[in-house]
Write a structure and sequence with these properties.
six-stranded mixed beta sheet, Neutral Protease, domain 2
Length: about 500
C-alpha cells in the first residue's frame, strides 16, 4: 500500500505527532508548503485540511543512474548508456592565420564522424570580431550557407551576442592574438552528427590535448538544411551563442584557475550554454530543450522526456558524456537549475533599450565562471547551501511556478520578460505555449494510487494525494534514496 490516511493524527515513539512542529502544519491557504518528516520507513506528515495535495518527493542520494522504490521497501538500479565522446583532437601542424583577409586559405583539422581529416578553408567574411571560413574540401550536398543569411548572423552575433556574453559571463580568450573568433562552416560537422561544436583543445592549454590543435577560438558549424528550422539567421545566431559560451567557460573556469585537467559533467556545461542562449536574447530553440525537461512525453513517446528523466546527479556530478536516451531532458534540466540559481541570486533587469542592469544574477555567474570549485562544490560555495537543498527548492519551484497559489520567490521562477530587441522572451514558464503549438501544463503529477513507484537518485516525483479526512499520510520509500518531501494543497 503506497499511503495511509488515518482519521486522527498518529504519534511517534516520543508521543509527539508526526511533523508536529509549526512548519509541518498545513494551513488553510492553497499553495502553502508543509514539510513532511523523514521516518525510518519513508516520509510522513499530518494533513489537517481535507483537499487535494501535491507531494514533492525528492531523493537526496548522490548516485548516478540509480532508481529507488517507493510504496515498497525495495530498490533497483538502472544504468544509462552514454554515447562515445569526441576522440582526442590530433595535432595540426598548419599555422593559424592570425590576421586573415577575405580570400585567404588555411587548413583545419576536423572530425568527420570516423577520423580527423585536413580540410582547405577559405575566408569568406572578415570583420573586427569574426573570420568565417568555408570548407572547400568536403563534398557538401546542402550547398553553402547563403551570404545574406551569414550577414544577418554576423550582425546579430556582433551586435548582441558578443557584448551580452562579455557582460553576463565574461570576456572570451584570444590565444592566437588575432582579436577575432574563427567560424568554420563544414559538412564534416553534419557527418559527425552535430549541428555545431567547439573543442576546448583549441585553447591550447588543457590537459590531454597534445599540440595546440587548430589554435584559437573556433566554432565548427554544420551546414543547415535550407528547409530546416536551423537555417534562419536567428537560429544560427542562437547556435553560435551556445558554442561561444563553451569557450568562455573553459577559459575562465579551467585555464584561468590553472586546473587544466579539471572535468565537469558535460551536461553542466551544456546547461550553462543553454543559459547563454537565453541571456543573450535568443531563447527560442532553447524552449524545446527546457520543455523536454518539464513534460514532452506525448511528443517523444517516452517518460524520460519530463521531470522523470532529470536527475541532479546526472548533470551536476561525475564526468558522464552524452546520453542519447535522455539528452534533451538532461540539457534542459541543467539549464532550468542554473536559471533558477541565477534568479535566486537576483537575476537582472532588462531595460527598455535592451541593456541589462545587474540585480545579483550577473555577479553570480561571474563568480561561478571564476570560482575554482566544480559541480556541487560550486553550488555550495556560491549559495551557502548544499546542492541537495537547492535542488529540493528548485524541484518545488518547478511544480509551483505558474499556478498562482504561492508567491514566495524561493519557490517560483520570475515572470518572463520580452527582449525589446530580439522579441524573444527571457526565462521560463512551465505553462508556456511554445512556438504556437506546444502547450505546456507543468511537470507530470501522478495520482498516488497510479504512481510508478520509481524514484530516481537526485530526482523527483510529484504525487497527487486526495485527503478526505484529517490524518497522517505515510509514503514508504527505500531509505537508501535519502528521501525528503513537502506538500501543498491545490484544491
Amino acid at each position: 500500500m503506497i499511503f495511509l490516511v488515518l482519521a486522527c493524527a498518529s504519534e511517534n515513539e516520543s508521543g509527539a505527532p508526526l511533523g508536529g512542529d509549526d512548519s509541518a502544519e498545513p494551513g488553510d491557504e492553497l499553495g502553502e508548503l508543509m514539510e513532511l518528516e523523514t521516518t525510518e520507513g519513508g516520509v510522513a506528515g499530518n494533513f489537517d485540511e481535507p483537499g487535494t495535495y501535491i507531494v514533492v518527493l525528492f531523493s537526496a542520494a548522490t548516485e548516478q543512474s540509480t532508481f529507488y522504490r517507493y510504496g515498497e521497501r525495495a530498490s533497483a538500479a538502472s544504468e544509462s548508456r552514454p554515447s562515445d565522446r569526441l576522440p582526442p583532437l590530433e595535432p595540426n601542424d598548419t599555422p593559424a592565420v592570425a590576421f586573415a583577409a577575405v580570400g585567404d586559405h588555411r587548413t583545419f583539422s576536423v572530425y568527420d564522424g570516423s577520423a580527423y581529416v585536413g580540410v582547405d578553408a577559405e575566408a569568406v567574411t572578415v570583420t573586427d570580431e569574426l573570420v568565417i571560413w568555408n570548407d572547400l574540401t568536403t563534398v557538401n550536398p546542402l550547398g553553402d550557407i547563403p551570404a545574406a543569411t551569414l550577414a544577418g548572423v554576423v550582425e546579430k552575433f556582433e551586435g548582441l551576442v558578443l557584448p551580452r556574453t562579455r557582460q553576463v559571463f565574461g570576456q572570451e580568450s584570444d590565444v592566437e592574438g588575432s582579436g577575432r573568433i574563427d567560424v568554420l562552416t563544414s559538412f564534416t560537422v553534419n557527418e559527425y552528427g552535430a549541428v555545431a561544436y567547439v573543442t576546448w583543445c583549441d585553447l591550447g592549454e588543457l590537459a590531454g590535448c597534445g599540440a595546440r590543435s587548430n589554435g584559437g577560438e573556433t566554432i565548427y558549424m554544420g551546414i543547415p538544411d535550407p528547409e530546416s528550422d536551423y537555417s534562419s539567421p536567428n537560429a544560427i545566431t542562437e547556435i553560435w551563442a551556445h558554442e561561444l559560451n563553451h569557450l568562455v567557460y573553459a577559459w575562465h573556469k579551467y585555464v584561468g584557475n590553472e586546473q587544466l585537467d579539471a572535468r565537469e559533467n558535460i551536461y553542466l556545461t551544456e546547461g550553462m550554454s543553454e543559459l547563454a542562449q537565453d541571456l543573450t536574447g535568443f531563447n527560442n530553440g532553447n524552449q524545446y530543450i527546457w520543455a523536454s525537461a518539464i513534460d514532452m512525453r506525448e511528443f517523444y513517446g517516452s517518460e524520460d522526456y519530463s521531470t522523470q528523466g532529470v536527475s541532479l546527479n546526472d548533470f551536476l556530478r561525475g564526468q558522464s558524456y552524452y546520453d542519447a536516451r535522455r539528452d534533451g531532458p538532461l540539457r534542459g534540466g541543467s539549464y532550468l537549475f542554473l536559471r533558477y540559481l541565477f534568479e535566486q541570486a537576483g537575476g537582472f533587469t532588462v531595460n527598455d533599450d535592451g541593456s541589462f542592469s545587474d540585480d545579483g544574477g550577473i555577479a553570480f555567474l561571474h563568480d561561478w565562471f571564476t570560482a575554482p570549485e566544480l559541480g556541487p562544490d560550486c553550488v555550495e560555495a556560491l549559495t551557502g547551501s548544499t546542492a541537495e537543498d537547492m535542488a529540493f527548492d528548485w524541484y518545488t519551484a518547478l511544480v509551483l511556478s505558474g499556478r498562482g497559489i504561492n508567491d514566495d520567490p524561493r519557490f517560483n521562477y520570475q515572470a518572463r520578460v520580452q527582449d525589446p530587441i530580439t522579441k524573444f522572451e527571457f526565462g521560463v514558464d512551465p505553462y508556456a505555449v511554445v512556438h504556437g503549438w506546444l502547450t505546456l501544463t507543468g511537470p507530470p503529477v501522478q495520482p498516488i494510487a497510479e504512481a510508478d513507484g520509481k524514484l530516481r537518485a537526485g530526482g523527483v516525483e510529484y504525487l497527487e494525494v486526495v485527503v478526505d479526512e484529517a490524518g497522517t499520510v505515510e509514503i514508504p520509500v527505500d531509505a537508501a534514496a535519502l528521501p525528503r518531501a513537502r506538500a501543498f494543497r491545490v484544491d
